[in-house]
Amino acid sequence: MLDNDGRSCVACGLGKWGINCANDCACSSFGSSSCDAKIGCICKAGLTGQYCDKDVDECTSGLLQCTSTEKCMNTYGSALCQCIDGYTRVGDGCQGQCFCLIISHSFRIFSLSLVSVQIIK
User: Fold this and answer.
1) CATH 2.170.300.10 domain residues, the chain
2) Are 100 and 113 contacting, i.e. CB atoms less than 8 angstroms apart?
3) CATH architecture assigned to 1-55
4) What is the pTM of this model?
5) How do residues 3-57 score in pLDDT, each as one tens digit?
């Protein structure tokens, strides 16, 4: 803001920003990390908008990449990768669930699972 001398700049007071400090810092308490005297609300990751109250869809924007065994689930301010049906979380990835059926016939055991078919001798 311009000082009374008409030449010097003065910093905006607490809670104000913009030209002549005309804007209130009405930032979302959840979505904003601070209010800058020049540009206004500084949004946390995953949020956008003048007041940091609008969600960024990390799934459709490509900000979060999930593997082929996961689906992207957008949440307010974030997103996560969830295992698709038939897979469970193991560490950082998803692994196929094994529903096995074992049949014994003539000294051979057949093992059938959703992932593969194996003949065990």
Assistant:
1) 1-55
2) yes
3) Beta Complex (2.170)
4) 0.62
5) 667 777 888 888 899 888 899 999 888 888 899 888 999 999 999 999 999 999 9
